[in-house]
Amino acid sequence: ETGVTQSPTHLIKTRGQQVTLRCSSQSGHNTVSWYQQALGQGPQFIFQYYREEENGRGNFPPRFSGLQFPNYSSELNVNALELDDSALYLCASSLAGPGRLVQYFGPGTRLTVT
Amino acid sequence: QQQVKQSPQSLIVQKGGISIINCAYENTAFDYFPWYQQFPGKGPALLIAIRPDVSEKKEGRFTISFNKSAKQFSLHIMDSQPGDSATYFCAATIGNSGNTPLVFGKGTRLSVIA
Questions:
Q1: Which of A1, A58, A71, A65 is nearest to A30 (CA)?
Q2: Which of A44, A48, A90 is opposite residue B99, by nearest beta carbon?
């Protein structure tokens, strides 16, 4: 186990609704990255938070937003849900610094949009 | 534009055989290439990784071969076991500090049959 936890495990939402997913990073890690993994695909980078600031963003619209808290836990918020948002959402924690390359993934939150 | 191309999409190997998964990348700035293993219902877990200053890295039954000029790298699983049945993802990143996002291939579903 990586020590990265995510909640909830799975949830079902209706198109147009809003959702918040949560991630607790591994102890001592100051960076959290969020990825979207559609069925049968590799994870796609959404954005990253480093010391409570957004530190990079992939090709996702502004309705995907996030937060990082002083304890380095993080939230992913998605507004105006669309059917294509159905996916496994993964967070990964890491410790920024030279040579510190490993990202540790949580088990993910399975989101289904109907 | 897919920056990391992975093949095959699926692979069936006899117990004790060698599993080979290939990846090719486009961005010459990539300098850290991890492989992740993902079991159903779990997040990806780091298996083995390589930097481009070496052509091969071995950890137990797992070996990465790296060809910088061809911009290709591959994962070899020796003496494949049923417990190795999982989805494998290659990834690439610019490995300065652990703050750069991972770019994943689409994954290979490996089935090891007895």
A1: A71
A2: A48
